[in-house]
Write a structure and sequence with these properties.
Shape: globular
Distance between the termini: 40 Å
Structural class: mainly beta
Strand content: over 45%
Radius of gyration: 13 Å
Helix content: under 10%
Order of helices and strands: EEEEEEEEEEE
Number of strands: 11
Largest sheet: 7 strands, mixed
Length: about 120
């Protein structure tokens, strides 16, 4: 069983930056693929970015060049650095862990609002 707790959300003006953090407990963190997803009002949950156990990253086209995902295995944490935020980035952001051989866990989410 893996528990995930997100932090770092909030209100930011367009063009601003935020860094989301996700703290994991339980399981073998270094073996997990970690990711960030988001869900805007009235829309489905969508992938933002993932980082594999080996450090390989993947990001949605809508955030490439603006968002970066990273992990610290020693601290059991994953981060999402968000730069040049836009109003359309407003959503609840969820931390996700995929554990071998087939488990999946979610955090409770953190709200990000981009507005002037």
């Amino acid at each position: 069983q893996v528990q995930l707790v997100e932090s770092g959300g909030g209100l930011v003006q367009p063009g601003g930056s935020l860094r989301l953090s996700c703290t994991a407990s339980g399981g073998i963190f270094s073996a997990n693929t970690m990711g960030w997803y988001r869900q805007a009002p009235g829309k489905g949950r969508e992938l933002v970015a993932t980082i594999s156990s080996g450090g390989g990253t993947n990001a949605a086209n809508s955030v490439k060049g603006r968002f970066g995902i990273s992990r610290d295995n020693a601290k059991k944490m994953v981060y999402l650095q968000m730069n040049n935020l836009k109003p359309e980035d407003t959503a609840v952001y969820y931390c996700n862990a995929k554990t071998p051989p087939g488990g999946e866990f979610w955090g409770q989410g953190t709200q990000v609002t981009v507005s002037s």
